[in-house]
Amino acid sequence: MSINPKVTSATQADVAVYKSFQKQFPDFSRWFNHIASFTAEFETLPAGEAPAGAKEVAAEEDDDDEVDLFGSDDDEVDAEAEKVKQQRLAEYAAKKAAKGPKPAAKSLVTLDVKPWDDETDLEELLANVKAIEKDGLIWGAHTFIPVGFGIKKLQINIVVEDDKVSLEELQQEIEEDEDHVQSTDIAAMSKL
């Protein structure tokens, strides 16, 4: 498609090219329309310095012979670019190290501890359960919930550090109190 300056009427092809250009280069289109609004004042506009990169662009256009449009097989390494890259990597590593370790991942867990029958001493069961101490384990609130036929189960909240406490091992340790505990279940669990 060629543009004929003598043609004064636009066609749908012109509209398609215009929309495509605006979509592909929105910043340039905005700048071009802004500068075009000053056409009547072009001769009276004050002189200004070229934008910061315009001189480099002009210099690059003069060095067309050095431009490799199809990529190069040369494994030349720009020493300055490599130096900047290494410096930025070092800054990133230092920034990351300055933050320190991340806080430990924790979970809030609600455990159901089921007794054998209605004659099980629930206060003793609670004392035996809370007697278990581990690094990364915090016992929380508890309640006795009726199950049926006069039997109540112990429901207790705990906070555990995921890396330090295995819930499976904790349940096994609670179930070792065979005189009081029939079984344990995890009723609810959420990450903190």
TrEMBL record:
Residues 49-72 are annotated as: Disordered. The keyword Chloroplast does not apply. Residues 59-72 have a biased composition (Acidic residues). Residues 160-187 form a coiled coil. GO terms for cellular component: cytosol; eukaryotic translation elongation factor 1 complex. Keywords: Coiled coil, Elongation factor, Protein biosynthesis. GO terms for molecular function: guanyl-nucleotide exchange factor activity; translation elongation factor activity. Residues 106-192 form the Translation elongation factor EF1B beta/delta subunit guanine nucleotide exchange domain. Signal peptide: none annotated. Residues 69-96 form the Elongation factor 1 beta central acidic region eukaryote domain. The keyword Protein biosynthesis applies. Belongs to the EF-1-beta/EF-1-delta family. PANTHER family: EF-HAND AND COILED-COIL DOMAIN-CONTAINING FAMILY MEMBER (PTHR11595), ELONGATION FACTOR 1-BETA (PTHR11595:SF21). This is Translation elongation factor EF1B beta/delta subunit guanine nucleotide exchange domain-containing protein. It comes from Kuraishia capsulata CBS 1993. The lineage of its organism: Eukaryota, Fungi, Dikarya, Ascomycota, Saccharomycotina.
